[in-house]
Write a structure and sequence with these properties.
alpha+beta; Phosphorylase Kinase, domain 1; 2 domains; six-stranded antiparallel sheet
């Protein structure tokens, strides 16, 4: 982590930015905190690279992040295509590349453990919905969205089935669900390739 620089924003998308936690060709990643105290990794696209192609790639990245979720995946929090920025749940710890570079190839048992955690075949379509603002609302603790509780989902069921006049607090009607099996399989293929790379490195 690095301190914020003079040119860095101090707040974006409802998050107070605390420090820098990474960077890439398209943007800078910050540690952000919401008013409620939730931490998120907030990626802000650099103004110097903004063009139609970059915006298209950013939109594709956001769509992918909305697709992949589960008990061992950092939850998608939100995004804004105009500024643009995106945020996912902050998970402390090294990324896979840093871990392998520092400690060498992963042991077989650890590799198998990581592979088993990827939630490719969970029944997402049956339990996961999105509201009008693309905020996810899910039916079990393994696929809850950022800041969602069991009560939110029970309120959602009441809204759907019992003619409740108002949606759950913090959500905006209408709601929809989508078939995301194809995207999940593509994400699984990418993850598997990166995991094989981590296992084979140094051999």
């Amino acid at each position: 982590m690095e301190p914020l620089r003079d040119e860095d924003p101090r707040q974006i998308g409802g998050f107070a930015l605390v420090c820098r936690i990474g960077s890439g060709g398209m943007g800078q990643v910050f540690l952000g905190e919401s008013v409620a105290g939730h931490q998120a990794a907030v990626k802000v696209i650099k103004p110097s690279v903004l063009d139609e192609d970059t915006r298209a790639r950013f939109g594709s990245e956001v769509d992918s992040l909305r697709t992949v979720y589960g008990p061992f995946v950092a939850a998608f929090v939100g995004a804004d295509a105009d500024q643009p920025w995106l945020a996912v749940e902050y998970v402390p710890g090294p990324d896979l590349r840093t871990l392998v570079t520092g400690k060498g190839p992963l042991p077989l048992a650890e590799t198998a453990s990581l592979a088993s955690r990827f939630p490719i075949m969970q029944d997402f379509d049956a339990v996961t919905w999105f509201d009008a603002n693309e905020r996810r609302i899910a039916g079990n603790r393994y696929t809850y969205g950022f800041g969602q509780t069991k009560d939110h989902y029970e309120q959602f069921l009441a809204y759907q089935k019992q003619g409740r006049s108002e949606p759950p607090e913090g959500y905006t009607a209408p709601f929809y669900k989508a078939d995301r099996e194809k995207e999940m399989r593509e994400a699984h293929a990418y993850f598997s390739a990166r995991l094989r790379e981590a296992t084979d490195k140094g051999k």
